Amino acid sequence: MTAPRTVLLTGAAGGLGTLMRELLPPYGYTLRLFDQRPVEGAPDAITADLADKEALREAVRGVDAIVHLAGISLEAPFEHILRANIEGTYHLYEAAREAGVRRIVFASSNHAVGFTPRPPDGSGAIPVDTPRRPDTYYGLSKGFGEDLASLYQDLHGIETVSIRIGSCYARPTSVRMLSIWLSPADCARLLHASLTAPDVGHTVVYGSSANTRLWWDLSSARALGYAPEDDSEPYAAELIAAQGELDPHNPGHAHLGGAFCTDPPRWPH
């Protein structure tokens, strides 16, 4: 695929969006920013809710691709998740269909498969076709987004890469995160690969760095041209000394989704 020139970035004021506003332009992208909150330092950003169909139509007009990060990123009452993550993603895909946008990168989450038992550290054992086992309404909404992307590929020819993002921070902050950490630089590399790889149809990939303690299979991401360069291991000794090793008998440690699998879910992890 020819590298897109203008990319709509939804969720541009969020934590991940803020990181990508800095890291994506060096790949040659011009970003059009969209968020329900004002984007600091970006007076031209579109400030609107995903329920605002007219604002979405304006946002997608003339763009080459979309990186969809917007939505609620933690557990919340179902009505809130429904409006922001489920209906909001539907509105975005409808606007893309009407505008003829052919490529979307969708921020899915490891929480779509959160109740999958965690494998041994470093096994890289969890494939992308593992049965979905959402751990929250939030995880459920990400499974919906993946299925919506599949539907719009089959019906309308809109290609999507759905990235089941682990934890994207400047550095890992928990022992669990050592296995699922996605460095900001690797996130930008993965988004660039997802925007430019040819013939992706609807492809699901895991989003993490090349961590020594990796839990899931990155082969579908690497097939797009993703070449992660970072590893969480330099942070391991400090985190383990402070927090201890993961306990397989702890409900918050036994599954891929971590503390999201507890009742009530706890975060951030």
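(the above was protein one; protein two follows)
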Amino acid sequence: MLKGYSVPLTPQGKSPLAPTPPWHYSSENIAIEYWTSPAAIAALLPPGLTPDENSNGRAFFWFLDWQFTGANDELTDPARYQYREAFVLVEARFGDMAVNYCPFIFVDNDAALARGWIQGFPKKLGSIYQTRSFSAPGPAAAPLARGSRFGASVAAHDERLATARIQLEENVVDPSTVFNRPTTIRRFFPQLEAGRQGQPPVDELTLSLVEDLRIVDVWAGAAELSIPEVAGEELHSLAPVRVGRGYRLGMAYSVTDLRILRDYAAERAVAGMQSKLRGRRSSNLQ
């Protein structure tokens, strides 16, 4: 019997890219608040999400330095389970609920890529860096203190996609005043069979569920963000028209579940069946 939560399935089940949940994450992060074109956000939203008119194009660009573990002490295998990531969250609405939506995300690790696809994050491989803080004082230590400067960048295929800079000014006592929206994502797995390639078997709008979320040591300050146009990428469609505050913070949470908000594949199947029934009724009437 072949075992494994994800591929590859093997007799011992030790090779899958993604282990069975729960998944536990800890990270150091840089986040840039900015405003982009509301029309660009609207064009990227899947059915069921609408632009948040009160946000007027507000988004966050995140850079994250992650450490992961599951149930098998994966944090002691950093070559496989440490990784870096960068993504955009745009503000939207699902009915009456204020949410974020993730249209673009880059990661530098295959295990993280697999976990992301399972959740619905549209992860692509990239090269991500950010300034780190160290406990020993010195010019390169970047302490969490007023005046410290941090930088971050993401590139793909040797082309720089985004660059950020922040300078810390003040501590944020209540992180929920800044980071207070759940994240929605789209789980999408295409079909290869000829004649059915427009019928993905998995196509869902999901709500990311996190447990034991902790956001600590939040600092805010002045920020810069640039997102140039790069051939073969569309991240620049969300380039900033105005940049707000920058944030440096620590974050940890666990993932064991997600919530399906809409099942587009099931909706299409029902619509197709209803169309066939209407066609049969029309034929019988003739």
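Reviewer note on protein two: The chain has one domain: 24-285.
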